[in-house]
Amino acid sequence: MLGPASVSGVRVQASYDNPVAVVALPGAGRLTSPQLRRWLARSDVARDVPETPLYAGVLRDLGRRIPESGLGALRLWGQTGERPATWVAAADPVYLEPQRDTLCLHALPQLAPAELERLVVHLGSALGGDGFGFLRIGSLAYVTAEAPFATAAVPATALDGKRPHAYLPQGDDARGQRRLVSEIEMALHEHPVNEERAAAGEPPVNGFWLWGGGEAPPAGSERLPPLFGDDPVLRGYWLARGATCARWPGSVGRCLEDSPSGFVAVAPPGPPMDDLLDDLRRALAHGRLDRLVLRFANGLRANVSRAHLLRIWRRRHPLLEQGEP
Question: What mean pLDDT is reported for the chain?
């Protein structure tokens, strides 16, 4: 067992005899190196279940149960560093495109914070005070409620381009959600933000997708590998368990220096995928890692071990050819 490692000034006890890294590459561009593509082809590659959010895939890789409620509260906790004291649901801005006999959901994660702020302030003025509150933290929005109500289980980004009806809560518990969603849609109709977006050729924000409703769990203490990255749901999960999380340190090498016994990392947009994967390949080849789990933005998942280096006969993988990272 390796000794403790330092993560941003915090001493972390090593967690694994055989160092393992789980690395998500949601915004790191495309893989262009033929050498790295051949290296990945030797690994166990699979396509994840559709509609799997990043946090769900990472927790599954760690053998953890995905919380059934309170994901919105965890996301808020991850953003602010403080445990929410009230019931919270995440509220994702969406464009609900009318089609022949249904609606198609389009997530709008790139909505400018200034636009989101104007919409949230308007919703607070129009609908707040009746047991509901609205707030914006950075580029994300939330609904708080005095009386809990049923919400969807997954974020809007997991359903982008899909029909959302099958993912809506059902039954009597969903009445509060249906009422609030209808009121939000009416309040957003002809809002100046949407008029400006229409003039710029952008889709309107005609709804908010409410998901992950619930209260944050009590703060606890649980053994988890250090987390490097800014995904707010994962950060909230780590904070709720008293585990160490830090910002992306700039490179895979820094992650290994700070936690040689293994880690979870979410690479931010910017670093080229080839560079990140080459650093991980070298760490595996030199024995600094024993196993590696890679998650790509297109839903591919690669489980790579040192033993896979011996699969020299594998030079291509059909999933890498059909849906290359």
Answer: 88
16 pLDDT band, cuts 50/70/90, is very low
pLDDT of residue 249: 94
Type of residue numbered 124: G
Reported in sequence order, the residue ranges of 102-188 that DSSP labels E, i.e. its strands, are 103-107, 132-137, 140-145
| Beta-bridge mates of residue 134 | 143
b/e code 270-287 from CB counts within 10 Å (16+ = b): ebebbebbbbbbebbeee
- What is the average pLDDT across 3-10? 35
Q: Strands 300-305 and 140-145: what pairing?
A: unpaired
How many other CB atoms are there within 10 angstroms of residue 223's CB atom? 9
Q: How far is CA 33 from CA 22, 29, 37, 140, 278, in A?
A: 21, 12, 6, 35, 9
In this structure, the dihedral spanned by the alpha carbons of residues 234, 240, 245 and 247, taken in order and rounded to 10 degrees, is 60
Work out the pLDDT band at 216, boundaries 50, 70, 90.
very high
CA dist., res. 242 & res. 50, Å (int):
31
Q: Is 60 helix (H, G, I), strand (E, B) or coil?
A: helix
Q: How confident is the model at residue 324 (pLDDT cuts 50, 70, 90)?
A: low
Strands (E), the chain: 5-7, 10-12, 20-25, 44-47, 87-98, 103-107, 132-137, 140-145, 207-214, 227-228, 245-246, 262-266, 291-296, 300-305
Q: Are 227 and 243 in contact, with CB atoms under 8 Å apart?
A: yes
